[in-house]
Amino acid sequence: MATASATFKSRTAPSKGARRTGWVLSGLVIAFLLMDATMKLLALPIVTEASAALGWPSDVGTARLLGALLLSITVLYAARRTSIVGAILLTGYLGGAVATHARIGSPLLTHTLFGVYLGVLAWAGLYLRNQKLRDLLAN
User: Fold this and answer.
1) Fewer beta carbons below 10 Å: N end or C end of the chain?
2) Nearest to 99 by CA among 57, 69, 56
3) What average pLDDT does this structure show over 103-121?
4) In terms of C-beta density within 10 A (0-12 exposed, 13-18 middle, 19 or more buried), how is residue 94 classed?
5) Residue 30: which pLDDT band, with cuts at 50, 70 and 90?
6) How many CB atoms lie within 10 A of CB 22?
7) pLDDT band at residue 124, thresholds of 50, 70 and 90?
8) Is the dihedral of CA 29, 32, 38, 44 positive or negative?
9) Model confidence at 8: pLDDT above 80
10) What is the pTM of this model?
């Protein structure tokens, strides 16, 4: 009879190249998210103007709240121990961005689906660099 730990045995470890590729993909996502969070935290005029155009409140408080939320999620995604939780929360955040763009009729391939592209990159990077996620998805 197999024990619970034997059932959840680790598969072949990812190659060094796969791990590096995963960190490159994750790094690109993290860099973009940090830039976006910083712009929101600084409440730059472009952020408040874009928020108004998307139907969001254009006040500084809302921009900073979204920036703090995104920064927190990005830190969770970047940290090895909390990366899966961060990816789940990031997926929800990006889903909100997709819904916002779909609601106002933004161009599909460039604006509305951008959150989907970013989410796919985030999960692909995490899959390539995180053995526990690979094991979870393999079973």
Assistant:
1) N
2) 56
3) 96
4) buried
5) very high
6) 19
7) very high
8) negative
9) no
10) 0.87
Closest CA to 66 of 35, 102, 37: 37
Positive or negative CA dihedral for 111, 40, 88, 12? positive
Q: Break the chain into its structural domains and give their ranges.
A: 17-138
User: SS3 for 114?
Assistant: helix
Average pLDDT of the chain, as a whole number: 92
CA 29 – CA 125 distance, rounded (Å)? 9
Q: Is the dihedral of CA 95, 97, 100, 103 positive or negative?
A: negative
Identity of the amino acid at 14:
P
Distance, CA of 46 to CA of 40 (rounded, Å): 9
